[in-house]
Amino acid sequence: MKWTDTYEIVDSLIDKYPTQDPKTLLFTDLMNMVTSLEDFEDDSDRCGERILEAIQALWIEEID
């Protein structure tokens, strides 16, 4: 997975952290959660605020 694989990232986050409320996450915590995913293979330097916002927004949408 790479940073641009937003849907795959969110699916993996939901599976790994089923009780986590994405609305309460700091972007630094979200970035650490994504980079710790087993299939994630991208450089953390490629991550920016827009990518994290997109991941967080999709995660919120998926659990609502």
Portion in helices: 40-55%
Largest sheet: none
Radius of gyration, taken over Cα atoms and rounded to an integer in Å: 10 Å
Number of helices: 3
Number of domains: 1
The first-to-last residue Cα distance is: 24 Å
CATH topology: Arc Repressor Mutant, subunit A
User: Which regions are unreliable across 5 or more consecutive residues at pLDDT < 50?
Assistant: none
Strand content: under 5%
**CATH level-4 homologous superfamily:** IscX-like
Overall pLDDT metric: 96
Instruction: Please tally the β strands and state the result.
Output: 0
Give helix and strand order, one letter per element, not per position: HHH
Give the CATH class: Mainly Alpha
What structural class is derived from the secondary structure elements?
mainly alpha
CATH architecture: Orthogonal Bundle
How would you describe the overall organization of this protein?
The protein has 64 residues and is an all-alpha fold. It has a single domain, classed as IscX-like (Arc Repressor Mutant, subunit A, Orthogonal Bundle), CATH 1.10.10. It contains three helices and no strands. The chain has helices at residues 6-16, 27-35, 49-63. Helix 1 (6-16) packs across helix 3 (49-63). The termini are far apart.
